[in-house]
Amino acid sequence: MKFRTFGSLDKFLSLNFSDRTRSVLIACSGLTIAILFVVFSSWPGNFGASGSSNISFISYSAAGISGGAAIPACGGSSCAGAGYWECGGGENSGCNWVATGPIPGTACYSNSNACGEYYSGEYDCSSVCTVSSSAPADPSWYGQSCTESNVCGQSASGTYNCGGTCSVSSPSLPSGYGSSCTSSANACGETNTGTIGCDGQCSVSSPDTPSGYGTICTSATNSCGAVYYGTIGCSGSCSVSSAPPNSSCASPSISASGQAEGGGASGETALIRAGVSCRLIWSASPATSCSVSGGQYSDSSVGTSGTLITNPLTRTTDYVFTCYNGSVVSAQKNIKCQIIPDFKEI
Questions:
Q1: CB-based contacts of 27-31 (< 8 A; 24+ apart in sequence)
Q2: What share of the chain in percent tops pLDDT 90?
Q3: Which terminus of the chain is more solvent-facing, meaning fewer CB atoms within 10 Å of its CB: N or C?
């Protein structure tokens, strides 16, 4: 016999009865399995068209028949996942499983975190993933601040990425950093060698000039004490070294006079009486030495200035003062001590 829909049974059912008093009907509807006990009081040719029947709906649920019985497989696996059995349209037709969810045992995944990491699992018999959809926590370092510095102390700020690497690189070093460089030259043309530093400048400055550079200095002296004047040069030495030639010394200027001892007029010619000494007075400049000749003196060395008292004179005597300025240049001065004639009255 054939019949359609009872209660929630919305699928076409095909049954054969061998016992007209009762039979068990298994109906598939979604995840629903229902067991109906049908008791007939008459046997009509077309069930439900005439006659009477007593149909009892016992119980059904997605989890199984009440009382703990397992859900009948209805011709298929008992772990087929979400879906329903669809029975055929003809009598004695088989049942086909129509899946409405993922197949149990296939892979499933949680949501991904910021780094693309996720949990993996598989779908169970109820087509539910064995892992939560919640994403794994991001790595503890992810997004934390980081700084990259170069050897010059310059830095750039960023954040740590999924691999634990800072998102920024250290700043580029100044152009030419570490390459060789030369300082500017000092007054002597000397330079220092260094390297380009973090400020982009050469690490060295011009070398100091030699000690005393540019200060006044003198050459050696000549015989009259004359010198050349120069300056301390790049070698640290005076720009002049040789003394001026002795011939360049200035000629001495000599002032000299004679005077009778005891007083009287003085001059280059001194008038004295016989038996009286002559006083000689001289001064020379510039001069390094003087000498006197005449009378009792024979090229005797004397100072460049002074006074001499001659021996008493009995005749006119000439005295010559020769003064040198150095070893070459000289000058002379003559002093005459003239005896005054002694006149007698006749």
A1: 28/74, 28/84, 28/85, 28/86, 28/87, 28/95, 29/84, 29/85, 30/62, 30/84, 31/62, 31/71, 31/82, 31/83, 31/84
A2: 62
A3: C
Residue 160 domain flag? no
Q: How far apart are CA 286 and CA 323, in angstroms?
A: 9
For the record, the structure tokens of 339 come out as: 């005896």
Length of the chain: 346
Residues ≥6 apart with Cβ < 8 Å to 57: 6, 7, 34, 36
| Boundaries of domain holding 39 | 2-99
In this structure, the answer to whether residues 243 and 257 fall within a common structural domain is no
d(CA 139, CA 160): 10
pLDDT tens digits, 309-327: 999 999 999 999 999 999 9
Scan for tokens 């050459």, then name that residue.
219
pTM, rounded to two decimals:
0.45
Question: Does 234 fall in a domain?
Answer: yes
Q: Is the pLDDT of residue 281 over 80?
A: yes
- CB within 8 Å of 73: residues ≥ 6 apart: none
Structure tokens at 77: 């696996």
Give the integer Cα–Cα distance in Å for 72 and 28: 10
Q: Give the pLDDT mean for 290-318.
A: 95
Question: Residue 127: inside a domain, yes or no?
Answer: yes
Cα–Cα dist 181/202, whole Å: 6
Please give the C-alpha separations between residue 256 and each of 36, 163, 176, 307, in angstroms, as whole numbers.
Answer: 173, 111, 81, 10
